Amino acid sequence: MNKVFSVVLLGLLLLVVSSASYWLGGGFEKNSMPKISQEEKQPSYWVAPMDPNYRRDQPGKSPMGMALVPVYESSEGEVRISPSVEHNLGVRTGEVTLGPMVQHIDTVGYVQLDEEKLSHIHTRVDGWIETLAVSSVGDSVKQGEMIFELYSPALVNAQEEYLLALRSKNTLMADASRQRLEALGLDESVVATLRSTNKVSQRVAFLAPSDGILTSLNVREGMFVNPSLEVVAIGQLDSIWVIAEVFERQAGWLAPGQKVTMSVASYPGEVWHGAVEYIYPELDAMTRTSQVRIRFDNADERLKPNMYAQLRIEAGNAEPHLSVPAEAVIRGASVGGESRDRVVVRINEGTYRSVGVKTGMESAGRIEVIEGLNERDVVVISGQFLIDSESNIEAEAKRMSDPAND
């Protein structure tokens, strides 16, 4: 019962294909020469238009009542198509070219502070925060501005020792006392003020080491602090990092120094230019992605931490590759019992053949061809599916009729 159903289903499928071929205007001239040549040559045999395995030595009709089609000797798997059928099929061709293939990786990421420009401020002695010049995370600070004043008995004693050393005219002792003050965290400008005024300060000012914004603030006025406590952290915005996620299959395309363009939703139409700075060594086990760090200049400080960014990485290399238009490739077809990609190659005017190819990377509408084609071969990029179907039907019929296969 299943065999009968399969035969009926195959018959219906062949009827649809045959009808489509006739509607396209004249059908395929399978293994036949142009009309002038056909008048000079005799057909090798006749086949049913819907069943290539039904062959006769003379004209007639198929079991379905259709006229048999003459077949002329030609190379195995070739299909010859009349100009009218090419027109009806909308056959278009493209060329196999040799050249560089730039791989674009489109991905997303998040803006972060440049961690190489983060400053963490601790006191190096115990003490109390007497004055706090900043109020909250996000406050802007300028290099040299006071952040807080600290009262510490240890710092008071160190200042007194320094002034005593200066009064004693002992240069070695004075230098050692000055180095001790610097080791305890006093800024050079504070030490210079102490030397010029010759007066001990009960409250010692701690200054901002650079321009930036507060990324953390862990104290309030009057709090007792010790060296283990981070008082404040300052981050700079003149350059930022973007951490992007790249799929595992694309990770091998990456290299430091590759150019990157970025856009953010806050500024539509604007583009930032940066470069891949670092490729993280570990792959995320959950998302199967590799992280990439990209640096961008941000002198106007419009890019803010945690902004969502869309990126394009120009990956790959400049080595030449054979490639064809992406639409020319018929994916995952069976060729000689092996699953391979195929393309339809134009042998000459009106003659085509399906060819198995090994493909590689895809970029900018083209697919790399590792083997199966040569430079300047012409491939079909529109209408190739019907031609490929006819080519493989004929090639299989030729193989089955060959006595060597019996």
What does this structure look like?
It is a single chain. With 406 residues, the protein is of the alpha+beta class. It folds into four domains: 2-76, no CATH class; 89-99 and 321-405, Beta Barrel (conserved putative lor/sdh protein from methanococcus maripaludis s2 fold), CATH 2.40.420; 104-114 and 237-318, Efflux pump adaptor protein, beta barrel domain (Elongation Factor Tu (Ef-tu), domain 3, Beta Barrel); 124-228, OB fold (Dihydrolipoamide Acetyltransferase, E2P) (Beta Barrel), CATH 2.40.50.100. Helices cover 22% and strands 42% of the residues. The chain contains seven helices and 25 strands. The chain has helices spanning 2-23, 35-40, 83-89, 153-167, 171-183, 188-197, 384-401; strands at residues 29-30, 45-48, 51-56, 69-71, 78-80, 92-95, 97-113, 119-122, 127-132, 140-141, 146-151, 203-207, 212-217, 224-225, 230-235, 239-247, 259-264, 272-283, 289-297, 308-325, 330-335, 338-348, 351-363, 366-371, 378-382. It has a six-stranded antiparallel β-barrel with strand order 7-16-19-18-17-20. A four-stranded antiparallel beta sheet has the order 8-15-13-10, with no helix packed on it. Strands 12-11-9-14 form a four-stranded antiparallel beta sheet. Helix 4 packs antiparallel against helix 5 (171-183). It starts with a helix and ends in a 5-residue tail after the last helix. The model is unreliable at 1-10 and 13-40 (pLDDT under 50).
